Every structure is written in C-alpha cells, then in structure tokens.
C-alpha cells in the first residue's frame, strides 16, 4: 500500500506532506495524448514512479506509523459519514412512507365520511318514504273507517226506526187489550162481591173467633210450662247449680272463641291479606284475588320487561339506573342483600314509575306506601309499621318496598316538632331497617330529602337524583304520549278520532321548545288533553291548531302553579331545574 502516499515539499525532506496524500491517492494516470489512428498507445509511468518514490520515503520516515494511523482514521471517518448518509436516507424514506400512510388514512377518512353522509341521506330518504307510506295508510284507514261508520250509522238508523214503529204499535195494542181486561175484571169483581157479601162476612167472623181461641190456649200452655220449670228449678239445688255452671261454661266458650278468632284473623291477615298502610301492590294474595279476579289474572299474565321501558330520562341517569336494575336482578338471583335507595327530585319526574319497572324487571313484588298515611294513625302507627315489615319478610319472591313522600314522617327528630306517636313510629321504622335484608328492598322517594333524620340517611346505600326533562327528553316524551293517546286510538275502528294531516315530528320539536320547565307528568296530562280535544269536536277531528292551543293552555297553567309556590319551593325548583339543564 506504499504507492498510495505522495511526498510533499516541506522543510524536512524526510517528513511526508500529509495534506497531499489524498490528492496523490486520487490521481490517476492521465490518458495518453490523442494520436492518429495508426499510432500505438503509449503508457506513461512517471506518476507510478513518483508514487513509488513517495512510498519509499514514507517508509524511511520516523512518522510512517502515525501517517498510516491517520490514514486509517480518515478512512474510518469517511465510512462513518457514508453510513450516516445511508441512515439519513433510510430515515427520509421512512418519513416518506409515513407521509404516504397519513395521506392514505386521510383519504380513507374522507371516503368513510362521505359514505356515512350518503348512508344518512339514504336513511333520511327511507324514513321520509316510510313516513309518507304511513300517512297514506292512515289516510286510507281513516277514509275506510269513515265509510264503514257512515254505513253502520245508516243501518242502525233504519233498524232503530223500524224497531221504534214496531214498539209503538205493540204498546198501543197492549194498552187497548189491558184496558179491556181491566174493565172486564172490575165488572166481574163487583158482581161477585154483590152476590157473596153475606157469605164473606160469616167467614171473617169465624176466622176471628178461631184465632182468638188459639191465642188463649197458647198463653195458658206457655204459662203452665214456665211455671212448672221455675218450680222444679227452685225446689232442686242440683239443677240450679248445673244451670249456673252451664251458663258460666257457655260464657267462657264465647269469650275464648272470640279471642281465638282474633288471633287467627291476625295470622291470616299477615299471611294472606295486605296491611292497611299499603296503597298498591303486585303481590298475589287469596283475598285480593277473590276481590279483583280480573286484575289478578292480568298481573299474572304480565311478562318481565326492561326496567327503563317507556321511562324517558337523560342518558347519564338512564345509564346509572340501568346499572341499578342489573345489580338488583343479580342480587335476587344470587340471594344476596338488597341495597336501600333514595330517589329525590321534583314531582312527576318518573320516580314511582321506575320503582314499579325495577320490581317487575327483577322478578320481585312491589308495594307502595305513602308517608302521609302514617301520621293520621296516631298510636296505631307502630303496630301498622310492624305489620308492613312482617308482611314484607313473608314474601317468597322478594319485595320492593317503595315509600312515596317519605319526608312526611321520616323527619329530623332533633329539630322538627313531631308528635310522640309519630316519633314512636319513626323509631319502629328505624328498628326494622337497621340491618340489610335479603327479603325486601327499601326505596324512598322525596321532593325535600334535606328534611330526613340523620339515622334515615345512614340507612341509604345509594342516592339518585331525578331532574326535570331537558329538550331532547321533552321531545321524546311528547312523541311517546302523542302516539299513545292520539295516533294509536286514531287507527282503531271502534274509536271516533281523526287527525288532520300535518308534520307530527316538526310539531313535537316545536312543542318541546315551548314546554321548558314542565315535568313528565305534566306532559302526560298534555297527551290526555289532546285526546279529549279530539273527542269533544263535532266531527272527531284533531287539528294542528287544537294541539298547539292545548299546549299553550298547559304552559299557562304551569306558570300559574309556579306563581302559587312559596319562595322556598321556588328556590328548590330553580335549583333542580339548573341541575337538570347542566
């Protein structure tokens, strides 16, 4: 390798010029000068000679090893730089690939968005077609119903006219015949009385004499019997003692039977009947089934449904209540301990409805109590409260005990002025709910939970707030009750109710904007008002103007009710409304 080095012209002739090493190594033999086509190629060996001379001088120099190491280091540096350039090129290629992938992903995203948009447009178009078909079917059904109704009315009118004429003729003929019969009977009776007057008087006298003789003989016989009995009783002390003992045993038997009957009645009532505090229950009992057989049969045929069916609530609240329903169902299946729940919020927000749905979804019975029924019981409140919990513990399926308006008797004992009887009833309630139970689940509902006693709050495992419905929930509620009270009856042939043709969905959205602050119960009453408006019209036609008019009336009534509320109730209502909006 000594030929790759070249010597430079420095001050020291033995030291090679390292700056010219690369230039010497990179030199190539210069091409031979061009000559004519007939002249042979000549090799110039001067450069080779100079390289060999420089290598020999370098070998003789004392810095030959350092120069060789420096050359190696330079070569290594060049290789590292070359590798770095290769890495940079690979990184650049990877960046190009990533950019291409990002562009492809954006293109796919745009394509997916366009497909989604087309799918939405297609769904909207299909929805419009379905709605139009439904409206056409409704119009045809209405026309068919009107035609059938008209024919039935004409037929009924003809039948009524014929029936009326027949009845009038029969009445006329019957009145004439009755008059003739009455006249004939009167004449015959008068003639017979004139002919048999003397004989009738003799028969009456004979009967009176016989009756008098019979009465006198009965009096004499009864007197002789009682006299002889009293004489025998007073003359014989053994008979007197036996009579007294018999009367005593008879009295003892009567009082014993009365007490046994009372105990038996209480046992039967605890097993078969429901306590007086329970307003409504789905629990099967022989006494209730005997009183209401049709209602009992319908309840037995009721199938298990979802706990949130026809219960329209905000999404977060629906998700939380869905978890509660699943937990309750699994608790019943695994025979675990039920959790006590408090549901609080404004009236008419679906607390009672959800409690019933939760019990049916979980396969449990439900019983509804009202807190306002406890205070009038007075000193009997403790007994009735124990009856309720004894009755609940005897349930085979498990019982959901729902106490509505619970704040009416579960008030704070430290600050509220409550009677001693109500305080004793509250203590009985706290005693029966001190431990978790696998027989019953306690659900309390209240509009003012801040009035609860601290011991009642200690027994609650979960608290759920029911707020006023928002705009989307109001729209869903209005559509639900419009379909239930208006559209469904309009499609039945037996119901005389017709609907004017208009855009139902747009009208429901408009009314959802108008009914801000109204509860679910008020919206349900609005659906009943629409149905009543259709029934009160002459031709049974419900128009768009009538629907809006009833909605405006309901809004005015709601505002009037809000004005009647006290300042504390208004503040609570505003607070609840703000929380429901947020």
UniProtKB/TrEMBL annotation:
Top-rank lineage group of the source organism: Eukaryota
Biased composition, class Gly residues, residue ranges: 1-11
The protein, known as: AAA+ ATPase domain-containing protein
Region spans: Disordered: 1-44, 134-163, 561-582
Entries under Pfam families matching the protein: AAA, ATAD3_N
Biological-process GO terms, alphabetical: mitochondrion organization
Alphabetized Gene3D superfamilies for the sequence: P-loop containing nucleotide triphosphate hydrolases
InterPro entries: AAA+_ATPase (IPR003593), ATAD3_N (IPR021911), ATPase_AAA_core (IPR003959), P-loop_NTPase (IPR027417)
Compartmental location: Mitochondrion inner membrane; Mitochondrion matrix, Mitochondrion nucleoid
Compositionally skewed regions (Basic and acidic residues) per UniProt: 144-163, 561-575
Domain AAA+ ATPase residue range list: 337-470
GO cellular component, one term: mitochondrial inner membrane
GO MF assignments: ATP binding; ATP hydrolysis activity; zinc ion binding
Record's keyword terms, sorted: ATP-binding, Coiled coil, Membrane, Mitochondrion, Mitochondrion inner membrane, Mitochondrion nucleoid, Nucleotide-binding
Tagged with keyword Nucleotide-binding: yes
Source organism of this protein record: Aphis gossypii
């Amino acid at each position: 390798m000594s030929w790759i080095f070249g010597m430079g012209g420095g001050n020291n002739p033995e030291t090679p010029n390292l700056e010219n090493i690369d230039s010497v190594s990179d030199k190539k033999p210069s091409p031979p000068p061009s000559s004519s086509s007939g002249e042979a190629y000549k090799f110039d060996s001067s450069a080779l000679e100079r390289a060999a001379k420089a290598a020999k001088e370098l070998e003789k120099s004392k810095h030959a090893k350092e120069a060789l190491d420096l050359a190696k280091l330079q070569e290594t540096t060049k290789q590292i730089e070359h590798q770095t350039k290769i890495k940079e090129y690979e990184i650049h290629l990877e960046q190009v690939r990533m950019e291409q992938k990002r562009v492809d992903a954006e293109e796919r995203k745009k394509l997916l968005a366009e497909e989604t948009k087309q799918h939405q447009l297609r769904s909207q178009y299909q929805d419009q077609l379905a709605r139009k078909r439904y409206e056409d079917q409704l119009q045809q059904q209405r026309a068919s119903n009107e035609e059938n109704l008209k024919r039935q009315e004409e037929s009924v009118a003809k039948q009524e006219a014929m029936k009326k004429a027949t009845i009038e003729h029969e009445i006329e003929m019957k009145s004439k015949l009755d008059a003739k019969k009455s006249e004939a009977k009167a004449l015959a009776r008068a003639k017979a009385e004139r002919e048999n007057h003397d004989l009738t008087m003799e028969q009456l006298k004979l009967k009176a004499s016989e009756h008098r003789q019979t009465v006198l003989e009965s009096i004499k016989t009864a007197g002789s019997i009682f006299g002889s009995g009293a004489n025998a009783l007073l003359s014989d002390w053994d008979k007197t003692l036996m009579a007294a003992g018999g009367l005593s045993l008879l009295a003892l038997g009567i009082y014993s039977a009365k007490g046994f009957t009372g105990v038996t009645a209480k046992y039967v009532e605890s097993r078969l009947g429901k306590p007086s505090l329970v307003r409504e229950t789905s629990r099967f009992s022989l006494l209730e089934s005997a009183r209401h057989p049709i209602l009992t049969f319908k309840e037995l045929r009721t199938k298990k449904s979802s706990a949130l069916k026809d219960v329209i609530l905000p999404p977060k609240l629906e998700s939380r209540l869905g978890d509660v329903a699943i937990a309750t169902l699994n608790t019943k299946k695994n025979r675990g301990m039920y959790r006590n729940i408090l549901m609080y919020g404004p009236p008419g927000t679906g607390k009672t409805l959800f409690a019933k749905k939760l019990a049916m979804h979980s396969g449990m019975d439900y019983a509804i109590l009202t807190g306002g029924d406890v205070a009038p019981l007075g000193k009997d409140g403790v007994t009735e409260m124990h009856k309720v919990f004894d009755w609940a513990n005897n349930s085979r399926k498990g019982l959901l005990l729902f106490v509505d308006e619970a704040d009416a008797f579960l008030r704070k004992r430290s600050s509220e002025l409550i009677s001693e009887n109500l305080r004793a009833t509250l203590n009985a309630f706290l005693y029966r709910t001190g431990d978790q139970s696998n027989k019953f689940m306690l659900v309390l509902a209240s509009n003012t939970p801040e009035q609860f006693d601290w011991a009642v709050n200690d027994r609650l495992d979960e608290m759920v707030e029911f707020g006023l419905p928002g705009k989307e929930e109001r729209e869903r509620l209005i559509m639900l009750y419009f379909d239930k009270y208006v559209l469904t009856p309009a499609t039945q042939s037996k119901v005389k109710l017709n609907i004017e043709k208009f855009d139902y969905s747009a009208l429901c959205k408009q009314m959802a904007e108008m009914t801000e602050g109204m509860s679910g119960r008020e919206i349900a009453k609005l659906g009943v008002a629409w149905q009543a408006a259709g029934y009160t019209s002459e031709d049974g036609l419900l128009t768009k103007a009538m629907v809006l008019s009833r909605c405006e009336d309901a809004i005015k009534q709601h505002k009037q009710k809000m004005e009647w509320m006290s300042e504390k109730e208004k503040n609570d209502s505003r607070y609840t409304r703000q929380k429901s909006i947020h």
